[in-house]
């Protein structure tokens, strides 16, 4: 997708776009890492520090879980789902056939990055810029999504595969308790990563013509 013949002034731009094109959802993952834990930590820390936020509010909070700590997330999710089965909300059969194997496939990976938004820190700025008050929460989530995307692309650039999950609010309380996190940290997404054991599925693209327009382009 997109032109391959375009010349860029900075070769890193082409490399960046190649990484963007190469990022996919990988579900088959194992608990091996192609890089050091320090390198993983650096990727996540750089995303926390350098991804922008509206008015530089810096609302994203991130927890990196590796090895056994990562497995705990998915044990908590399995426990939460078992609770739904016991409550009669989730049929036992679909839990055993579909939910549990899926959660165990996440558990089999190397790590999970938990992405949170601290909406409570936005109180003062909402007062200061009352006219934008209802925009700050969505802006905070958008900024968080940028961090998720950067970590996803960077981890895959290093040889990991990753997939993005959303088990909030089901696991929120157990997560906060297990790792002693502040109550104001609201969980948004879980990025599961590990060494790929299978290729991503086929991906269809809606034509650019129906999704993109350009005006005023020089000949
Ligand atoms: C905002 C967002 C939310 C997503 N939520 C989930 C999710 O909860 N579970 C999941 O398995 N994949 C989730 N995905 C992955 C998408 O299904 C996937 O990115 C999409 O089908 C395109 O495939 P690709 O990632 O291989 O390019 C999410 C992706 C985005 C961008």
TrEMBL record:
Oxidoreductase found in the keyword field: yes
Chief subcellular location: cytoplasm
Alphabetized UniProt keyword annotations: Cytoplasm, Nucleus, Oxidoreductase
Places the protein is found: Cytoplasm; Nucleus
Pfam families: Nitroreductase
GO cellular component: cytoplasm; nucleus
Annotated GO MF terms: oxidoreductase activity
Domain (Nitroreductase): residue spans on this chain: 20-194
SUPFAM superfamilies: FMN-dependent nitroreductase-like (SSF55469)
One of the protein's GO biological processes: cellular response to oxidative stress
Family under the similarity heading: Belongs to the nitroreductase family.
Protein name: Nitroreductase domain-containing protein
